[in-house]
Design brief:
Layout: H1 6-18, H2 23-42, H3 69-76, H4 81-93, H5 97-101, E1 108-110, E2 113-116, E3 119-121, E4 126-128, E5 139-142, H6 145-158, E6 167-168, E7 171-175, H7 178-191, H8 204-215, H9 220-227, H10 232-237
Antiparallel strand pairs: 1-2, 2-5, 3-4, 6-7
Length: 238
């Protein structure tokens, strides 16, 4: 502890910047270090504040733009059947884009539970482990009745491939591509026919899930687990 002073902390921040560490990671690392050093200062290990004059990493997350329930209804009905299924999974179960693209009937492990076990990886265009998880690991999320009905409706109408509902439009042997969802979102926004909040991105449908849970009194620890956040600090920040 005696080796720490403001110069060491400054060097730590500059090293992260030189290595092009993500701003969110820089902020998280600095927060942990600051908490430890301020505690040491409070306990008398340091006579002077070792953070005095230190400029913390400048991290200001973009504001999450979330649709209202009425806007969400318009959004989910604006695209094709695959778009509707994806929006329902993101807004109703909190799935990420790639996780929703990997929806599988075999993951309906109970009437009200969906098991998120894989995602479509953007870089490889193939199925892979979840973010912050190893292969074979999973998380269970609540499955509202309306979302279960959408899944079953889609499966009955379009069929499945090894349990997977969404496939590449031109080649059903391949996973559902990210561009298929992104292109629809861009067309819907550009049409001006749907009430979409200004600056809302596709990920806002997932943010709707978190906001809906928290505003209905569900503990943030549960919401963070369902969202697949590595720490509920991330849930707090967003």
């Amino acid at each position: 502890m005696n080796s720490f002073d403001h110069k060491v902390v400054d060097h730590f921040i500059r090293t992260m910047e030189r290595l092009k560490t993500g701003l969110a990671t820089q902020a998280n690392a600095f927060d942990k270090l600051r908490a430890t050093l301020l505690d040491a200062h409070r306990l008398g290990i340091y006579a002077d504040n070792p953070l005095l004059g230190v400029k913390p990493p400048q991290y200001d997350p973009a504001r999450a733009v979330i649709p209202s329930l009425e806007q969400l209804r318009g959004i989910r009905a604006a695209g094709d059947d695959a778009f509707r299924l994806m929006v329902d999974l993101m807004s109703g179960c909190g799935l990420r884009n790639g996780e929703a693209a990997a929806v599988n009937l075999n993951n309906l492990v109970a009437d009200d539970v969906y098991r998120v076990s894989e995602q479509v990886i953007l870089s490889t265009k193939s199925y892979g482990p979840l973010k912050h998880r190893k292969a074979g690991e999973y998380r269970d999320v609540p499955l509202p009745a309306r979302i279960r009905e959408t899944i079953q409706w889609y499966a009955e109408k379009h069929g499945t491939f090894d349990g997977y509902l969404l496939r590449q439009p031109t080649d059903p042997t391949k996973p559902y591509p990210h561009w298929a969802m992104d292109n629809q979102w861009k067309r819907i926004r550009a049409s001006g026919q749907v009430d979409i909040p200004e600056r809302m991105v596709l990920y806002g449908n997932r943010h709707f899930f978190a906001s809906n849970c928290l505003s209905n009194g569900i503990p943030i620890t549960d919401v963070a687990e369902w969202m697949g956040h590595k720490s509920f600090d991330i849930t707090f920040k967003v």
